[in-house]
Design a protein that fits this description.
It contains 38 helices and 10 strands. The protein is mainly alpha-helical. The strands form 2 sheets. The protein has an 8-stranded parallel barrel with strand order 1-2-3-4-7-8-9-10, surrounded by 7 helices. Strands 5-6 form a two-stranded antiparallel ribbon. β9, α25 and β10 form a beta-alpha-beta unit. The longest helix is centred in the first third of the chain and has 36 residues. The two termini are 41 Å apart.
Amino acid sequence: MTLHAREINQDVRELGELLGDVLEAQSSTEAFEIVERTRLASIEYRRGDAETREEVGRTLDRLDPEMQDIVARAFTTYFELINLAEERERVRETREGSQEGILADSVEEAVDILDERGADGEELQQVLEDVLIEPTFTAHPTEARRKTVKAKLRAVARDLEQLDEVRLTDREEERVERDLAAEVTSLWQTPQVRERRPEVTDEALNVQWYLENVLFEVIDEVYDELERAIEERYDEDIDVPKLYEFRSWAGSDRDGNPFVTPEVTEETLERQRDTILPLYRNKLKELSGVLSQDASNITTDATFDERLQEHKERLPGIASEAEERYPDEPYRQKLKLMRESVLRVSDVRQGGYENHEELLTDLRAIAESLRENNAEVIAESHVDPLVRKVDTFGFSLAGLDLRDHRKMHTDAIAESMERQGIDYAGMDEDERVEFLTEAILQDGSVIDMEDATGLSDDSARVLRRFRKTADWQDEFGVDAIDTYAISWCEEPSHVLEVLFLADQVGIVDLPGYCGLDIVPLLESEYALSGARRIMGTLFENEAYQMALEARTGVQEIMLGYSDSNKENGFLAANWSLYNNQKRLADITGDFDVDMRLFHGRGGSISRGGGPMNDAMLALPNETVTGQIKFTEQGEAIAEKYANHDIAERNLEQMLNAQVRARHNAMEDPVEEIPEAWREAMETAAPAAREEYQDLLQTEGFVDYFEQATPITVIENLNMGSRPASRSEDRSVDDLRAIPWVFSWTQARCIIPGWYSIATGLNAYLEDGGDMETLQEMYEEWPFFRTKIDNASLALARTDFDIAEEYADLADDDLRERIFPRLKGEYDETVDLVLDITKRDGLLSREWLEENLERRNPYVDPLNLLQVRLLAQSHLTETEKRTLRLTVQGIAAGMKNTG
């Protein structure tokens, strides 16, 4: 059976031709010819038919500012469209693989693997009980596209889907193609560059769109696939529990973002609740259309009857309406009452559901009644999917995580204590721990959280946030906002400070009640290496023990990938993270605490990005408790969750990996690593760290970075609400990890993804190591293989011919001292990677290579145009807009920002 009418080359060709037609019609024939000449000259160079890029350069040099803008828009729009063609190809491959039963990383594959390993039904049930996957959407500024542009691109994607998947008459096809042309024309006429910086509310709305329009619709389909796979392989009755929970930082992450106020957080909570409740009401209305069974044809059980009667007593007026409208239809009567109770969740009137568990109980009562009436197929098709949605999204759509820098809490307490003559700021760590513990355990309050007298603005905001959090939990439910992450956490007191502040407002009432998961974010080398000192002290602390017990004994710990990489370099950072994950597993094991690791991954390779399923399977067995949490950021959110089929595929791949990883951990609780492998990394990582840090500390390096990358442009892009730097200082330490990676990616010199790997591995080889061991590590050790493959991708995306153009922007002395060093490390790393992987090329997958070959000729002109604009000391407003547009175009072409 043919599932699709098209293939990727046709989509790419026709979209390119359509864009050319629009360009000529909207601009001029001259503009079209200039773009074509630039495009063809770039392709000739990449194919080897031209020795230099001189023709491309000459064409760009002759352009006036208006024509530069048109050229930049043309190539940027091209990438936006081609990204959709590649997205469509991913859908084709997924659907065809599923149809043919050869889809890798599916839930069916995971069940098959466990069955083949001999896992019985009880073992599979235990694996599923352990698993909880928590994608956490952040608002970090890595999404370069405007919301309006994204909306138009989704319309183009829908047109492509129709042409590809729907059998159309010639006339219908003409209409779709006309609509497609209209969308591309509108896209061309729409400004690509934001005129204003997005507000926090914009970012929260962006995250909400994916939750509401995609994930809400597809989540139950993943469960359905899993249940079908289990039924085919297992005879036992296996109950599939809740496996996913979505969380968000958008609107609640205060770290470094002064615009995240309590008002914004409250607005986000209200909007998310106001979004999810109508979705449930609509689904219940649809269900009422299906469950039209007459009482004479069914027999309802006692559980259903009791819940119906209780509901009628709670809402007598609505019950009368339901009985009059549906006199002999008990399911419809119940659903009418349920819709009203959902409506009244946020209503001043009585009768609303207190929490989503009450709605779940009602839905399950209906499903069970249907099954007892031999209508299981109706329950499976119509009720069970809604049960999964309610179980996943609750009444909050996504739970919000609060986050702030540890210094904010310390200062707030110090200033509050100073008013009472207590010198908290002057206490050492042990004294602070003792003071906070006693304060938490005593009955009365220690500080007046309402009194901001004498406090700095930051400290007053901290106290207000905790007061408001208590109010939010009362209003929206504890599940809506029950996690507090502490960035740059480095001492036990940093965790106890949050527990103390929560205690002062009643969020914590020990023993017995704790309304927050307090999550230390360990990102500095000092914090990671001191994990036992930090966590061990907490687990031995009387107050914290009580808090953990009240939170079912689960300790969430967040690992920061981004800043760890920026501080230590790719190889050393990843080895440190690997070791510290194992160390954390040992610590929590020693104290009999259940651990949930929260992986603070970014979209780029250097910030922990790459395929999530590969990353899950590469984690040390000791750390795979079943529960896992990870950030989803920027353009990665759009790539993974904008399309329904791809979103479902990503969720399936996560579940496949986590089920397999959890079973691996149950079979082999401790990952045994050959001593030779560990010695190799213990030799390579410190050498790599030393070389990387030496580069960053080289005199003039920051100046080179500013001159040879578009960092100054990126800092002023209206991409996100959070500032690019933590302060006004100009240093690598002060710069946030995202613009750091973004800038190097733009300049096609992606050093965060590979720099110092060669130095590190060569140190191992020179110390008596051998290539055969590295090759063995690559073949047999998931951790090492994943890191080398990820570095290979960063190396493949690096282009030193283009990077040299940017290097020429730097002062001569800086260029001569720094650029050859970067190039030398790159060349050595490429050679080593090819030797280790025994491949002829950097990329292991053919489609990746095709993808890069398709893109490179079109990214090059944008890079070269960007370099020319960066070289100018004064730019017109048009040129400034074009420069910003080249940043977005290159980001779209590289499919990566930070």
